Amino acid sequence: MSVKSEPKTRREMTRVRPLSTLGQEQYESAVHQHLRKIREVKTDIGRCIDDIRSLELKPTNISNAIALQRTLEACYDAYRECSEDFLSFLHATRTVESLNEAAAQRLILDSIDAKVEAAHLRLNEFTLVAKKEGSLHKSVRSSTSNRSSLSSGRSSSSYLRKVEAKLNASRARLKFVEREVEILQEKAALDAFLKLEKAKCEIEIQERKAEIMRESFDTESRDSEILQTRRMRTEEYVNKLYIKSN
Known about the structure:
The chain has a single domain (17-195), classed as Methane Monooxygenase Hydroxylase, Chain G, domain 1 (Up-down Bundle). The chain has five helices and no strands. The chain has helices at 10-14, 21-54, 62-93, 96-141, 143-245. Keywords: Coiled coil. Residues 160-216 form a coiled coil.
């Protein structure tokens, strides 16, 4: 039921492009819309999984388990469609930011896959309960049936242990994937912080350059005024000497 996403290729990593201011605004708006749809579907999946976890494991709940399974599959299909659309958009954008977002979405998709798989394993336990219940009814009717149900019980017990082992493995994998998502989100936050600090530093450098140029211009203007004043005084002094000499 899981979706296999293609890893980022070397070409994807190198053929990136910058966006204009307008393009960045349009990109952020589109990302917001995609994430809003994905969050809505993820909420439905989470609610369905919670219902499955809280469902008591007994024969009278088998019909409820079947209904929840159908709901879960419908929600997962909707999530997969939204996720694939978002990944296609991110790959088409081809910026560093979009490729990082695509990597994060792949990990989130793996996390959802693990949760859905664990929920399906939980639903399989209801099937085992139904089989055991049928075996108990048969054991009341005949001793031959009793031996058969005992054998079936052993088989069901063995299968249940396998299911539980697979469930535990899925839970462990889920924790690992969730940690990967956290690390990637922390890295994205750090990258954004460094990008912001770099922009601030560039602004400070440009402001300092402008300040130095203004100071230099003011100094040159003052020096020019001083030279002009000295020149005028010198000319005035020379003229006075010339008049006196005549």
